[in-house]
Amino acid sequence: MDSSNEITTPLAIEDWGLTDYQLAFDRQRELVQARLSGKGNDTLVFVEHPLTVTLGRRATQADLHFSEEIFSDRGVALQKINRGGLATAHEPGQLVVYPLIALKKKDLRWFADQFLQVVIDVLAEYGVDGYLKAGEPGVWVDGKKICSFGIALKKWISSHGIALNVNNSLETFTMIVPCGRPSERVTSLSLELGHGVSMAEVKKHFTEHFCSAFSYHNN
Fold first, then answer.
1. Which region, left, alpha or beta, applies to residue 115 given φ > 0 means left and ψ of -120 to 50 means alpha?
2. Angstrom distance (rounded) from CA 10 to CA 211
């Protein structure tokens, strides 16, 4: 989207570092409620989570390869949440991005397409070609999924978002059926490049492309 002729609005950026999923979930709800009450600002949140498997509204036990007891024994939290989608994994080194914003255009498809294009543009900064699959949420690289996507809307205020594999191990993905597809392979930016990546740099690129795509400015 060419936003060069559009008026930009301010966007707050928050970096929560490594934060427990439930705590981050509660913070999201608080920010959404503030936005609904007219007291809050549009906010882009960066966060990493400890080992966690999130289960969207359509997820069932069939999306897990092991019992809940085994997940607990391996230190992996299971979390049922209110976003769309099935099961996905979170690990330290994965960049999770939550846009807690009032959609400027009340069109879910537009928002999803724009948001995922931001991910593709960030990958392009590293010479990695990301692409979408029709009818499937996320971003892929050479047949492997690198980014999961799932959002929730409340009166056109968004929450949840994307999980981009940057430097994470990907081991937790072997415990689930990623997004309901048993044959799904996953990858990370560092795996594609053959070396680790600066998370701070990825966040910088993400902020720039997000602001450009959605006509924001960050002071």
1. alpha
2. 9
Which H/E stretch holds residue 214? helix 199-214
Is 147 annotated as catalytic? no
Contact 95, 202 (CB under 8 A): yes
The residue to which tokens 């966040």 are assigned: 203
Is there a domain that residue 123 lies in? yes
In the numeric block, the tokens 């937790």 are attached to: 172
8 A C-beta contact, residue 136 and residue 71: no
Give the global pTM.
0.91
Looking at the domain assignment, is residue 1 inside a domain? no
User: Is residue 2 one of the residues assigned to a domain?
Assistant: no
Q: Which one of the listed residues 11, 95, 116, 179 is annotated catalytic?
A: 179
For Cα atoms 97, 211, 163, give the angle at the middle one, nearest 5 degrees. 15
pLDDT at res. 84:
61
3 lies in some domain: no
Distance between CA atoms of 122 and 209, rounded to whole angstroms?
Answer: 7
Instruction: For the chain, list residues with pLDDT below 50.
Output: 1-5
